[in-house]
Amino acid sequence: MAIKISDHAQWVGKTDWQLTSFHGDELSTHHGSSYNSYLIRDKKTVLIDTVWLPFDKEFVSRLREQIDLKEIDYIVMNHNEVDHSGALPELIREIPDVPIYCTKRGEAIIRGHYHQDWNFVNVKTGDTLPLGDTTLTFIEAPMLHWPDTMMSYLSGDKVLFSNDCFGQHYASSSLFDDSADLNEVFAEAEKYYANILQPFSPLVSRKLKELDGLNLPIDVIAPSHGIIWRDDVSSIVEHYRKWSAAYQENVVSILYDTMWNSTRIMAESIADGIRTADPSTEVRLFNVAHHDKNDIVTAVFRSKAVLIGCPTINQGYSFAMGGIIEMLKGMKFRGKHGATFGSYGWSGEAVERMGKDLAEAGFNVIGNGLRLLWVPDENAVAACRTFGEDFAYALQSDASSHQTN
Ligand code: FEO
Questions:
Q1: pTM for this structure?
Q2: Ligand 1 centroid vs 149 CA: distance in angstroms?
């Protein structure tokens, strides 16, 4: 089904209602997704991006219902990860000579994936493709989130085809922001940012400033996943501006694993201490072995501080905690504080090791952590509460020192 998004452009993508994970199992997708492809029909006809490989035949077949494929003058590939380039081989079989406009790095990625000598045309920022009444202008956006990424701007209709930027893994029959559940859409947009774009936040900030400088009138932002923004274009842009600037809210997340509940008791007692010292702070607890890892990363993205706790297992920490620590290191968070805790029976190395890991991940680690032998008794629970209170006071003191500096 094709859906009109502007005078000359229509959506010809695929909604994937049953997608539950993306990037293999790296990213959970609780609300499915869509692979947004767009057809622009002016004096010249352009297809922007395709869809993921499992839907290649369906995509080409539905596209053929809209247009004689031989009438497609150009394909523009804004980004060539397989969720967007997967249907290229099926399509190019039908129109083998069609020029494929992409960045130089985009060509290398397409060649690396499909090993074909197609008709590539390399473009860079500022290059244009006149289509008749409208013109496409290309804007490179390297590492947002792959080296090949670019955006394309359609003058006349004032549409920014932003690819992964401003997108969400969100399947919907609504397609547009004015008819979607915006609470869900923004939650998915934030999860997308926190788990995919966060490591590249300084580049996102810079790109937003560059777009500001270009002064492009934008009526529609058409990303490559999820809802298309047309009712309130500025809202998602302003969210990106906030999210890319070392984002945090007044939230502390406690991430823990536990074998026989001792470290869980510590986590909950530390939370009590934080709330006692600073009732205005929201404290959220996650068992890293049970909770969705990407929801945990999103919670950390929102947090001003993170405590991680784990019992010592074989002189280290648990499998689940190891995975979360690896994710935290990759996300390159800035301006967040941290601390560690855990129970132990005889050697107790986990707390110190997690402290080093948190520091390596870029967190400002407060103190040397709290270790407790065996099962917490009343005194140990009190020590955990005091640890939580002291942590909250240290956060307050840091915040006030930043205000006076
Ligand atoms: Fe939606 Fe980076 O591909």
A1: 0.97
A2: 9
